[in-house]
Amino acid sequence: MEPHSTDKAPDGGWGWIIVLVSFMAQLLAYGQTQAVGVLYPEWLTVFQEGKGVTAWVGSLVSGIGLVASPVFSACVMNFGARPVTIFSGVMVSGGLMLSAFTPNVPFLIFSYGTVVGLGCGLVHAATVTMTCQYFDKKRGLALGIVTTGTNVGGFLYATAQVELMELYGLEWCLLIVGALALHLIACAGPMRPLHVPGYFLKQKAALQRAQEQLPALPEKPPVTVDPINDTGSDEKCLTASSPKFHSKVETAHNEKLFIGYNLLKVIKDAQQAYSKYINATSRFLQDRVFVSLCLSLFLFSLGASPPVLFMEDVAQSKGLIEDISAIPLVSIVSITTGLGKLVLGVVADVRWISVMYLYLFTLVGAGVTLLVIPTCGSYISLQIISVVLGFFSGNWGITPYITAKIAGLEALSQAYGILMFFGGLGTLLGAPVVGWFFDWTQSYDFAFFFSGGCVLLGGFGLFLSLLPCWGKCKAEELESDSECATRCQKIASVV
Question: Which residues cross the membrane (predicted)?
Answer without folding.
Answer: 12-33, 53-72, 84-101, 107-128, 140-160, 172-194, 289-309, 329-348, 355-373, 379-403, 415-438, 444-467
